[in-house]
Every structure is written in C-alpha cells, then in structure tokens.
Amino acid sequence: MFKKWIVAAAVTCLGCAASLTAFASGTLDQIKSSKQLTIGYRESSVPFSFLDKNQKPVGFSMDLCSQIVDHLKKSLGVPDLNVKYLPVTSANRIPLIQNGTVTIECGGTANSLDRQKQVGFSVATFVSHTKWLTKKGSGINSAQDLKGKTVVVTQGSNAVQFVKQISDKDGLGLSIVQAHDHAESMLMLQSGRAAAFMEDDILLAAKKAEASNPDQYAFLPDSYNTLYYGLMVPKDAPELKALVDKTLSDMMASGEFVQIYKKWFESPIPPNNVNLNFPISNDLKERIAHPSDKVPA
Prior knowledge:
Number of domains: 2
Distance between the termini: 37 Å
Helix content: 25-40%
Oligomer: single chain
CATH architecture of the largest domain: 3-Layer(aba) Sandwich
Largest sheet: 9 strands, mixed
Shape: globular
Number of helices: 11
CATH superfamily of the largest domain: Periplasmic binding protein-like II
Number of strands: 14
Strand content: 25-35%
CATH topology of the largest domain: D-Maltodextrin-Binding Protein, domain 2
C-alpha cells in the first residue's frame, strides 16, 4: 500500500471551485478516471496514524484504510490505483477534505454534528472520552485543582472549545495555550509549561505510553463527553461513504476489525514497542455489533 506515499506540504486551495464541483459530483468516478486518490494521515496520533522509524505512516486507521483501498481497487476495476499520502494536522484536515486535496482522512478524528456540516464520516471506528493528563506529584488531583493554572490543548482539536466551556462553567479561570500537535502539547506538560493536557483519553494514553517515564503522569478522575471517531470523507460523496461504511461493517461482522484493534491497542506497537493496554470499551462493542455514524445531539 505504501508504494507511492509522499510527505508534502499541505496546501489549502479553497478557491478551486471547478475542482470542487467535479469532486463532489462523482467521487468514485473521479477516482476511477484519474486512477488515484490521496489518503490524509497524522504524523503523531498514536495509535491511529503516525510515522514509524522509517518515516512511513502506520497505525490502526491506516490499516482500516488499506482494506478500503483494496475494496476500491476491486469495485472500480482499477488494480493499478495510485495512492498518495499527505500529512494533515488538526487545523487543516477538514479544509483539505473539503477542497478535494484529501480523499479519505485516516487519522483519529471525532465525529460531531458541527463537523458533519462540513464533511462526511464513516461508521464509528472508535469511542473515546475527554480527560485531563497531569504530572504526578504536582498536587493536582481533580479539575478543581487546576483553577488559575495554564493548561494545553492541541490546535484544531475538539478540546479547544470544550476546555473553554469547562473553564467558564466551573469558574476555573484557566489560561489556555494551543500547541501545534499532540507531541508539542505533551512536551509542554512534560516541561512544566502547562499543568495539564486535555484531549481524548486514548490519545493521552498513547502520549503517556511513549514518554520516557510513563509512571510520571496520571489521569485526573474527571471524565467528560463521549466521542465517536470515524474516517473523514467529502460531505457530498455518498457513494464513497457507502463503500467505506460497507468495508468497515463487513470487517466488524467478520471479526477482522477486532483483530486489527488488538494489534494496535493491546499489543506492542512501533516506534518504541509500547503496549497501550487499551481494551475495547463497551461503547465500541455496541458500535461493532451495530455499525453507525450517529452522534449525540
């Protein structure tokens, strides 16, 4: 699958109206005629998509997308489909789907009603909860202990607005800093420039596991909203979404999805051979049994 992956600068061309129209009018036809598509991936969203030691994108979502690409090749009759790989960030992943630069985003993106106005989502591939990660010995044992302190979130993440709401609602008066990506957010926590890092629990668990001293960090008991992850596709591409959903649903029914999950969440993974020890939640088991892209209002 990685024959022709590229690491390129993500350039947003929102003014490309003509290409947008062609893309929206028939995505599968466009893929078939051009014999190419672009997969968007994250560089540090372990275990969903990230770079291994050879700077190649790997991860749970990448494995799912590999199966989708194989299905596309067969269903479209294009065995020589050229698959390109483009790194995306929390900030530019939605615009790059909207303007047709990226065909499928294979990262760790939470589905929401607001985002559904801009892009399409596959059936849920993961279920997460928003939490805080702090350093042990900091004297911070609950969200209330963060009052007046500096906290970090990753730019473009759902956590950006959510932490502002929590700060206002609970009168915490937080000073909120936005980092470029999850790696930078973790670095701010590690260096003491932030007292806590808010993000989805699995992404925090991954950054904790990657740390040189994982036991140095701890989750606060406070747990917030439930988030349903999915693979992103263009909003006006129902045929592509249907193919993606069928591929994932078939994998869930056959047990292949669970095996891929165990590979990335319950086994040692690159680049440091760390096991996240993150079993399938009851919420995700429900979505595996009954695939759906529905999210709470």
